[in-house]
Amino acid sequence: MADPQRARRLAAHIQEIIAARLESGVKDPRLGMVTVTDVRLTGDLHEATIYYTVLGSEADKTASAAALESAKGVLRREVGKQTGVRFTPTLAFELDEIPDTSRHFEEVLERVRAADEELRRARIGAVPAGDPDPYRSTDSDEI
Fold first, then answer.
1. Residue 45, helix vs strand vs coil
2. CA angle 71, 37, 86 (to 5 degrees)
3. What is the pLDDT of residues 106-141, one digit of tens each?
């Protein structure tokens, strides 16, 4: 198992290489607005999982995934050339679901905030039903 600090540095370097190569080197028309969000390496530094997001619709995401899969060899060769490690890690691309999940949570929180605001407005001027003091009081003098 490699040093964790070395793995983090190598992952950050791979992220920079892949992002730069996608921006300038990959000429596939299917490739949309792709952002590399993270790179995770296995403990032995033999496999790299590249997480990415795509701006656009589901069709754009599918087309970009196919473009990344077809450019995997070129990208791996570039990683091997620029990192200088003995074994160039194999690349696997995974669509990063965190932005979509985060957007969903924000929408849910906004609905909850709206419901809270509606409840706050409904409470203005409201009075409790029944007696103002619903609890029975016993006088100690009567006992």
1. coil
2. 55
3. 999 999 999 999 999 988 888 877 776 767 776 655
Residues 6 or more apart whose Cβ sits within 8 Å of residue 6: 45
CB 52 within 8 A of CB 34: yes
Tell me the helix, strand and coil percentages in the chain, rounded to 5: 50, 15, 35
End-to-end CA distance of the chain: 81
Nearest alpha-carbon partner for 56 in 100, 2, 1? 100
Q: Flag whether the pTM goes above 0.85.
A: no
What H or E segment, with its residue span, contains residue 38?
strand 33-41
Encoded amino acid at 3, one letter? D
Residue of 57 and 141 predicted with greater confidence = 57
